[in-house]
Design a protein that fits this description.
With 601 residues, the protein is an alpha/beta fold. The protein has helices at residues 5-35, 44-51, 57-62, 87-97, 113-116, 125-140, 157-167, 187-198, 204-214, 226-236, 252-267, 278-281, 284-297, 303-313, 320-329, 344-349, 352-362, 455-463, 480-483, 492-500, 584-589; strands at 67-72, 101-107, 147-151, 173-175, 371-372, 375-376, 383-387, 393-397, 421-426, 429-434, 444-452, 471-475, 505-509, 522-527, 544-548, 553-556. It comes from Paracoccus suum.
């Protein structure tokens, strides 16, 4: 089928908007590529330092073997990243089999948002993306690599690594996933226990048992939050091998895919005949495909911040209007928790990304004519990996129909006609709201405001029984310049309880919500932020606020709203403790949420 006219129009608009910066970016990457393999320009002393610890250093110094740089986010604080402990050895062995060498170029930090949710450490979370980009840049600055292998999965880690990959756009970039943990306690049962705990119906022992039964093994958390949305993006944007995203860790297929990723990285360097630099993959069509995938699967709203930052590193400018217009024509084709009862393992078993990509291509909702790490054309990503009788890796045709229509449906018969992400504009600024898991009866909320400066104050008011009628909960001074724009996911059980009590409630904030948040309408990423004299700083208790996800508007209806002075932000609230002191310079220069809330791009 021909490309949907809205997909074509939005892509053309992005191309035109970005032309000057994209042209300059491509000129820089072409100039870097023209110099040739970087090792050729290092002195003998430079090279001796680079290879001193390598067993095959003489071969590397005197031949034109590809040398692959590994940038790893390994730690065993993140279950998703714990399997990466073994990857350097696997990669070096696979590189040797492919006539290449590999080195760990450097490590990047990888914090666990699950540990820091509701804690002061969450205020470092978003900025860790920029630190990851910087650290990966340092790793690759040795200029001894012909391609880069990026080991990262979770929230800010993949976006930070993509920013680095785009910045070193003359190098091929292959992203190597680790896969989700096996299914544990169903996510809806875990959420029910959380709500019971919030209401005081069960004790902490019951809550702890439920959490441990849900997060129980190495691998990515199985709900469809930011980490798994990242993995979908890397596949649909052509940076993973086809079908690689959701294969479980420590399985023969997973290890075969890792070895194949190494072989592919070695094959697409400038030393061979199939050179595919990252700059060729990361164009405006790839980013539009990523947004389409986000809408079709009901992915994390965090990517509405990360994708613009990632794109800017490649000279491409995305805007909220692009997300909104694409959402209007891309149907919701997947129901994965929190938008349904299934987890990502069930999604993968039902046909997963190979089927989804194939169906979106048939519907004209994806660009097929893109470059990927496995070659030109996104149709390659409709195949899925298998092990043959001898244990060799092969790709076979993916399923032609969904294997479970409660989890995956075709674009012609979707769960919803739109992707469920709406841009909001009004006298409270610009923001977004995700409604794919929100009942239609809650798509419009008009109620008096209760204004809070942090989520702890909201929870205290809840415990004191202060919420007895319809309420718009305003949590301000949560933007990047205030306190680093933490996720406010800890409010989800509290607000869910109020909604279950029959109250019409909504959250309005210049902060973020977790990719795991769901049924409560949340107008997030409001920009300009309150700490930058944005309109949220003028909201008062009792103001009637209307959040209208149907019309795409967000307004304070108080007649004197525009004439009020803003409430000043006290920066001391988030200035110290748990490392926040070190990020004052980041807070001072962070960009607006509408442009990615970034420091380095």
């Amino acid at each position: 089928m021909s490309l949907h006219p809205t997909i074509a129009r939005v892509t053309d608009r992005i191309r035109i908007r970005s032309q000057r910066d994209r042209d300059a970016y491509l000129a820089r990457t072409a100039a870097a590529a023209e110099v040739g393999p970087r090792r050729a320009h290092l002195s003998c002393g430079n090279q001796a330092h680079a290879y001193a610890a390598m067993p095959d250093k003489q071969d590397l110094a005197l031949t034109r073997k590809p040398n692959l740089g590994i940038v790893t986010a390994y730690n065993d604080m993140l279950s998703a990243h714990q399997p990466y402990e073994r990857y350097p050895d696997l990669i070096r062995a696979a590189a040797h089999q492919s006539g290449a060498t590999a080195q760990v170029a450097g490590g990047v930090p990888a914090m666990c948002d699950g540990v820091t949710q509701g804690q002061a450490g969450m205020e470092l979370s978003l900025f860790s993306r920029d630190v990851i980009a910087l650290a990966a840049g340092v790793a690759l600055s040795h200029d001894t690599f012909d391609a880069a292998l990026f080991l990262g999965i979770c929230d800010k880690i993949v976006p930070g690594l993509v920013i680095a990959a785009a910045t070193f756009g003359h190098l091929p970039a292959v992203f190597v996933p680790g896969g989700p943990m096996p299914s544990g306690l169903p996510n809806d049962e875990k959420a029910k226990v959380r709500e019971q705990f919030a209401k005081g119906e069960v004790g902490r022992d019951v809550l702890m048992a439920a959490e441990m039964a849900s997060y129980h093994a190495p691998g990515t958390c199985t709900f469809y939050g930011t980490a798994n949305s990242n993995q979908m993006l890397m596949e649909i944007m052509g940076l993973h091998l086809p079908g690689a995203s959701f294969v479980n860790p420590n399985t023969p297929l997973r290890e075969a895919l890792t070895a194949a990723a190494v072989a592919r990285a070695a094959a697409i360097t400038q030393l061979g005949n199939d050179y595919i630099p990252a700059a060729a993959v990361l164009d405006e069509r790839a980013f539009v495909n990523g947004i389409v995938g986000l809408m079709a699967t009901g992915g994390s709203t965090n990517l509405v911040i990360h994708l613009p930052a990632m794109a800017r590193a490649a000279g491409i400018h995305l805007d909220l209007e692009d997300f909104a217009e694409l959402s209007d024509v891309v149907p919701l084709m997947a129901r994965v928790y929190p938008n349904g009862l299934a987890d990502v393992n069930h999604f993968h078993a039902a046909g997963g990304l190979p089927w989804l990509i194939g169906n979106l291509l048939e519907a004209g909702l994806l660009h097929e004519d893109v470059q990927t790490i496995v070659g030109p054309g996104l149709a390659r990503y409709t195949a899925e990996p298998r092990l043959d009788a001898e244990g060799g890796l092969v790709w076979v045709d993916g399923p032609k129909a969904s294997l479970n229509d409660r989890i995956l449906r075709p674009a012609s018969d979707p769960f919803a006609q739109t992707g469920g992400l709406k841009a909001l504009t009004g006298n409270l600024g610009r923001g977004v709201i995700k409604i794919s898991a929100v009942k239609e009866s809650h798509h419009i909320v008009e109620a008096p405001a209760r204004v809070f400066a942090d989520q702890d104050a909201v929870k205290a008011a809840f415990k004191a029984g202060e919420f007895t009628s319809d309420t718009v909960v305003v949590v301000r001074f949560q933007g990047p310049r205030a306190n680093g724009m933490p996720e406010l996911h800890a409010l989800t059980p509290t607000l869910s309880v109020l909604q279950d009590r029959g109250l019409n409630v909504a959250l309005v904030t210049d902060g973020r919500m977790s990719g795991a948040s769901g049924k409560v309408p949340a107008a997030i990423h409001l920009s300009p932020e309150a700490a930058n004299c944005g309109p949220l700083a003028r909201v008062r208790d009792g103001d009637v606020i209307r959040v209208d996800a149907v019309a795409g508007t967000i307004d304070d209806l108080a007649p004197d709203f525009a004439d009020r002075p803003p409430v000043a932000y006290d920066p001391e609230h988030s200035a110290h403790g748990v490392g926040r002191d070190l990020f004052a310079a980041f807070r001072a220069v962070a960009g607006p949420a509408t442009e990615g809330a970034a420091v380095v791009v």
